[in-house]
Amino acid sequence: MAAADAASAELVIGWCIFGLLLLAILVFCWVYVRKYQSQRESEVVSTITAIFSLAIALITSALLPVDIFLVSYMKNQNGTFKDWANANVSRQIEDTVLYGYYTLYSVILFCVFFWIPFVYFYYEEKDDDDTNKCTQIKTAFKYTLGFAVICALLLLVGAFVPLNLPSNKNSTEWEKVKFLFEELGSSHGLAALSFSISSLTLIGMLAAITYTAYGMSALPLNLIKGRRSATYERLENTEDIEEVEQHIQTIKSKSKDGRPLPARDKRALKQFEERLRTLRKRERHLEFIENSWWTKFCGVLRPLKIIWGVFFILVALLFVISLFLSNLDKALHSAGIDSGFIIFGANLSNPLNMLLPVLQTVFPLDYILITIIIMYFIFTSMAGIRNIGIWFFWIRLYKIRRGRTRPQALLFLCMILLLIVLHTSYMIYSLAPQYVMYGSQNYLIESNITSDSRKGNSTFSVPKRCDANAPEDQCIVTRTYLFLHKFWFFSAAYYFGNWAFLGVFLIGLIVSCCKGKKSVIEGVDEDSDLSDDEPPAYSV
Questions:
Q1: Exposed, middle or buried, 127 (CB in 10 Å: 0-12/13-18/19+)?
Q2: CA nearest 141: which of 158, 165, 167, 121?
Q3: Is the Cβ–Cβ distance between 155 and 190 less than 8 Å?
Q4: Whole-angstrom distance, CA of residue 539 vs CA of residue 227
Q5: Which residues contact 17 (CB under 8 A, 6 or more apart)?
Q6: Of 9, 5, 480, nearest to 201 (Cα)?
Q7: pLDDT of residue 441
Q8: What is the pLDDT of residue 180?
Q9: Engineering a disulfide at 192: which of 158, 196, 233, 466 sits with its beta carbon 3.0 to 4.6 angstroms away?
Q10: How far apart are the first and last CA of the chain?
Q11: Which band of pLDDT confidence, cut at 50, 70 and 90, is reported for residue 179?
């Protein structure tokens, strides 16, 4: 009775944590979007779209610890199923989680291939003053139709990619087609949705390699180094103003006797005058920051930022070491590229794979750690996007600036984060594959022991941690793993992407170490749309 009450308490606590997590996600998304959106160009539709898409991404990532918790909750630590966890109840729980993924992944497909592109192209057309709303909607819908066609193609390809071949090699073409439809019906559309989501996850992998890997080094080092002093920057700016004014005075002195200036001097004079306007704008912003109470408050918090920076760089090194050992284990002991580098058991232990089973003994520390890991990846991804900006190959499309991000850039930001969060599930699987597959499940194996007193062998069951070699009826695989490894070629691409992730992290670490401190008003020189009387949005 006491054990049942304890189990029920664990279940209630688990769902309460998930409910609080959902509330925290909604609040975080609202604060984050409002923090970065432009105060002058904010639009209700783009704001709601950004908040909704970012919240869906985070809620989807929050489903991973819930999935792991539920499969672990159905079994006792001695390897036996709990009394209530019969075949029907287990199937119901699995189906509930699966339908949850169906719903969230379908919403993600809707956001990526229809809603976000539609809102983006709508506001692109809105920049033209001559167009009316009807024309904007028609044009946006026309461009969005292309994304919808891509989504439909991905679903069709995923639905009919043969994961299993017909047993009869001499079957006719019609029998082969019939087999594909039967396979599609038996999977309930899982293959089609999995293929589409895996395709998006592949794009998310590229975004994670670009932004998350760099953000994991840039975020902690920026916290440790801090920003330049507003007082010293103001002194340097004053010197620059005096130097530019001297150049302007020198050029103007050439025309005191009434002679016209040469074309070369006119161009130089115009450039110096533009530079002087920018420097005076910087002067006003630096004066505002220097006298701000926020600057003084951040100065008091400076030691805390250094501590956080050291903590984040240690966490980054922990992740990198764990990812390297996990990938090395796959390279040495996996079943090969044809299987998607699937590994049977852990031959090389990594720190996270060792830490999670220890935390499992104290509920719910392991689920809290998984949630922290997910949030860490998200925060470092945001830091990477802020530092790098949004690019299309070598063309810089948008910059992410606090209080000055355009609606289109905000939509791009949320779409990139959405794709990165999709890839986060595989990143966590790479860090702790056995834990993501089976959670804390054990199963029973027969063990023989020779007894001297009885002069014979005795057989009894001992619990063993679930792994890929475990019987299917003894260990329940998480629904996350089924989505991640439905197609072996995606798993192989993720494996090579992990090596690229490690390489970009090392490059980013070197670059971040070599870069100097950032200005407290970084970006003002480039902000031609910044009005002279507008106080700067900055972080010290």
A1: exposed
A2: 121
A3: no
A4: 9
A5: 364, 367
A6: 480
A7: 79
A8: 41
A9: 158
A10: 56
A11: very low
Listed in sequence order, the DSSP H helices in 111-209 are: 116-126, 133-160, 173-187, 190-207
Q: Are 371 and 65 in contact (CB under 8 A)?
A: yes
Retrieve residue 148's tokens.
């919808």
At residue 86 the predicted structure's pLDDT band, cuts being 50, 70 and 90, is: low
Amino acid letter, 266: K
- Under 8 Å CB-to-CB from 513, ≥6 apart: which residues? 221
Residues 6+ apart with CB under 8 A from 494: 201, 202, 205, 423, 426, 430
DSSP-based three-state secondary structure for 134: helix
- Give per-residue pLDDT as tens, 272-304: 888 888 888 888 877 777 777 777 777 777 888
Contact 383, 220 (CB under 8 A): no
Pairwise CA distance, residues 376 & 166, whole Å: 45
| Angstrom distance (rounded) from CA 441 to CA 463 | 9
pLDDT in tens, 484-515: 777 778 888 888 999 999 999 999 888 888 88
Residue with structure tokens 């990477």?
384
Contact (Cβ atoms closer than 8 angstroms) between residue 51 and residue 30: yes
Average pLDDT of the chain to the nearest whole number: 76
Q: Which residues contact 117 (CB under 8 A, 6 or more apart)?
A: 140, 143, 144, 147
Concatenating the DSSP letter of every residue in 295-327 gives HHHHHHTHHHHHHHHHHHHHHHHHHHHHHHHHH
DSSP character for 342?
-
Distance between CA 156 and CA 227 in Å, rounded?
51
Amino acid at 412: F
For 509-531, b/e burial (b = at least 16 CB within 10 A) is beebeeeeeebbbebbeebeebe
A 10 A CB-CB count for 393 gives 5
Q: Of 479, 419, 493, nearest to 200 (Cα)?
A: 419
pLDDT of residue 503: 92
CB 226 within 8 A of CB 302: yes
